[in-house]
Amino acid sequence: MDFYRALSEYYDEIFPLKKAQKEFLQDYIKRESLSSILDIGCGTGTFALELSQNGVNVLGVDLSEEMVEISKRKALEKDSIASFSVADMRDLSDIKEQFDGIVCLGNTLAHVLGENDLKQVLTQFRDRGNHLLLQIVNYDRILAKQVKELPIIKTSNLTFYRSYMYRLDGRIDFSMKIEFPDTNEVVSGVNLLFPLKLDILKSALLDTGWEISGIWGNFDHEPWTKDSPATVIEAKCVSR
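RESULT FIELD:
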């Protein structure tokens, strides 16, 4: 089985929607009065479908065709108004609509190639929405502690492993492996990540016309520290 096909098929099992994520999103769209959202790096549509259940018009996009197909199937099953299409966050030129908000969650943004690429991506976000919600792994913690492995995830069907290898160019090889105990099958894959420390992300946001309105260390609205598990940022567009 191809790794990314396997990952897409079991993604919801590995990363189920958590109560804190659901409540954070509900609070966010209500507080900012958002009626339309572009979900970039939507995966299997978990966040987009949750947002649509709150009456928000959502377009979810992802680079993975497998993920998008699963999102479309789930939308039909749930009779959701959310729509989905294949798109790369580096090239959103085919998306002509304007949205109240942009969300980019699940460490999607760390797939940029570097700081220049990051600014180009954030500029495209700014051109399509007035509010921005980002969530990535807290790379200040990862780099400071030189974390080699993330916690193993076990479900009734599989075991999911994740590890980091640090490159001389400052980027990270992110290795993933899925083991299926019933069949002894193992599939694996590697992604190249750019570890976005908070100061780099803040600077890039300000340089591309965003004003930061909130920074947290998780979806429980806890303050960000260097030991937080995640970096969650809210921003508003101040210039185009």
